[in-house]
Write a structure and sequence with these properties.
The structure holds two protein chains of two kinds. Chain A is an alpha/beta fold. Chain A has helices at about 5-10, 30-40, 50-60, 75-85, 95-105, and strands at about 15, 25-30, 45, 65-70, 90. In chain A, strands 1-5-4-3-2 form a five-stranded mixed β-sheet, covered by helices on one side. Classes of the chains: A alpha/beta, B mainly beta. The interface between A and B is medium-sized, with 27 and 30 residues.
Chain lengths: ~110, ~170
């Protein structure tokens, strides 16, 4: 599956520049200590957290994209760090559960 | 020396708290990893030091094991990882970052003795395995991770970076 398919099908708003890429699997977490031990490269990372630590963890495990749920939006310095790391950031108005169901219905496991 | 082309994975993953203490007698700082349900906040004396609680962060500890040969690398001397944002050309880490190609990110492996008074830091074997592990996980050659020991920082107190610990959960 591609990032563009996830964006179009689940109505995501892009927060920074992004290039289309493959995605594989989903990881949902709000703790960076959990992300670095549980997330896999290429995952869609779904989270409520919008701070810099999240980007530092997402970069370390090489997630394909980050989706902030419940319309959470990071500060400019977080966007700047994500741009530097090349991590596409998106926002969804859904809560975590509703968004997770959308990804499941899209065929993501 | 091992001839195995190691394929690392995490093992012995433990969730807990990174507890930071300071000595109000001499100003020294120390930290330790606790798996207790609540981070310990006790004050106590240890030799010439009078340690008091300075803060705690939810964190994780782990070791690395090779899936091929079973070699295990002990990372109990690592308190955490920090994404370096150092741009100081006078600092060894800052200079290293400036010399890297685009797509490279420097992470500093933090030991428990940030003053390095003991002369110890994260082991060389640990640093080597961390570099191999995190780069093996990457999807392609677009990105590269470089892990260095915190002893490489010229002044850890002034070092700029983002520590991978859960410090912002109350800011949801």
């Amino acid at each position: 599956m591609r990032i563009s398919e996830v964006v179009d099908t689940t109505a995501l708003e892009a927060l920074n520049a992004w290039d289309d890429d493959d995605v594989a699997g989903v990881y949902i977490s709000d703790m960076v200590s959990d992300i670095i031990t549980g997330a896999q490269a290429g995952n869609v990372l779904v989270t409520l957290q919008t701070h810099k630590n999240l980007i530092a963890a997402a970069n370390l495990v090489d997630v394909a994209m980050v989706v902030f749920v419940r319309d959470k939006r990071p500060a400019d310095d977080v966007l700047e760090l994500a741009d530097k790391a090349g991590i596409p950031l998106f926002v969804s108005a859904d809560d975590t559960w509703t968004y997770a169901v959308k990804l499941y219905e899209l065929g993501m496991r | 020396m091992s001839t195995c082309d190691h394929r690392w994975s995490m093992t012995d993953i433990r969730s807990g708290y990174l507890v930071v203490e300071g000595c109000y007698h001499c100003g020294a700082r120390s930290s330790f990893f606790s798996t207790e349900p609540v981070a310990p906040v006790d004050e106590y004396r240890e030799g010439d030091h009078f340690w008091e609680y300075r803060g705690s962060y939810q964190a994780v500890s782990f070791n690395l094991v090779c899936e091929k040969c079973g070699q295990k690398v002990d990372l109990s001397d690592m308190a955490g990882l920090m994404l370096s944002t150092c741009t100081d050309p006078q600092c060894t880490v800052g200079a290293l970052a400036a010399s890297q190609p685009p797509g490279t990110t420097i992470y500093v492996a933090l030991c428990y003795d940030s003053s390095h008074a003991s002369g110890h830091c994260v082991s060389d074997a640990g640093i080597t395995a961390l570099n191999e592990y995190f780069n093996q996980r990457l999807r392609s050659g677009r990105r590269r991770i470089v892990v260095v020991p915190c002893s490489m920082c010229d002044d850890l107190d002034r070092c700029r970076g983002i520590v991978l610990a859960d410090t912002g959960l109350t800011e949801l």
